[in-house]
Amino acid sequence: MPVHTARPGFFRRVLRHAWIDLVPLVRGEDADPLSHREAQLWSLILASRHVPHRLRRLSAEQGWGYAVTVQEWYADRAVQEIDLYFEENRPELARVALADLRPVGGLEPTLFGLALLILFYWAYSRTYPGLGLYPDLWVRLGSADGGAILSGQWWRLCTALTLHADGPHVAGNAAIGGVFIWLAARRLGSGAAWLLTVVSGILGNLFNTLVLGIHHDAIGFSTATFGAAGLLAGIAPFGVGGGLHGLGNGPWFQRFLRFVRTALIPFGAGLGLLAMLGVGDGEGNIDLGAHLFGFLSGLGLGALVGLAATRFGLPSKETDFRLYLAALGLPCAAWGWAWLA
């Protein structure tokens, strides 16, 4: 509201320069003095609009603080300039929906699953003559032998994930795979992350067998490890847990481009990991095809789950626990099928 002050006469304006404190005019008669920062801001506002003014520090009797004063005939303009500045720079109070960045799953389920993987290697790599159990028997029964799989021994797609050539092999897969699974568990929950990792490993072995044929054979959890890396890349464009759809708003073409840009970074990171760890030394010790198909399987599953999670939400804690039990039960069921077949 404009402030109207009595216009002084000509001689008073010329011979006596009265300076008026702007604080009562802008904030009311009972307003406190300005702080040093506020006084500097008011001074900057008036200086930018070429309004003559003075910045004065108040004494203890006046309440400390600062005052910005102008001559009487500039009072109306000074008040208008200050009010206009604060009106134009008023903060937006619109409610903004933020993604919930709190981790969904903890570290303990991932450590427990990796401990079971290492414990199983320790158990089957021992010899038990009384039971007729030898390490080679487990490998012959559960490796991803392409000819056996295509002949109907489908359990090998899962049991091969639990077999390893030696200690460093299982330790490396547990260390690298544990990081990816843990990161996925923070976004999806431990049960969903572990189940999708195991399923992506199974699908990776399946596609690898279909491509390479009956002469191919492989073991190791690394297929599932790259599946977890692909899973992270697949869910990256989606705000799972926060209720925000990764495609955003606007025309469909712009939403598609936004989706692609968001997915490129984790997808490139996954391809970089594939290039560093998946090529091997040329002696056939690393299965590049299984790593590639595991990553692509995880990528597809991650995109589907990310899309579903943004629309329907993440599983409840009870459901996630059941998914975790299902992920641990899949290898157990596969080995049971292998021994009973």
Summarize the structure.
By secondary structure, the protein is mainly alpha-helical.
Please provide a written account of the structure.
By secondary structure, the chain is mostly helical. It has two domains: 10-88, Alpha-Beta Plaits (2-Layer Sandwich); 108-340, Rhomboid-like (Rhomboid-like fold, Up-down Bundle), CATH 1.20.1540. Helices cover 61% and strands 4% of the residues. It contains 14 helices and three strands. The longest helix is centred in the last third of the chain and has 26 residues, at 252-277. It is rod-shaped and about 110 Å long. The termini are far apart.
Low-confidence stretches: 241-246, 278-284
Structural class: mainly alpha
Total number of distinct structural domains: 2
Number of helical segments?
14
Instruction: Identify the CATH architecture of the largest domain.
Output: Up-down Bundle
Silhouette: rod-shaped
Main sheet, how many strands, which sense, barrel?
3 strands, antiparallel
Strand element count: 3
| Overall mean pLDDT | 81
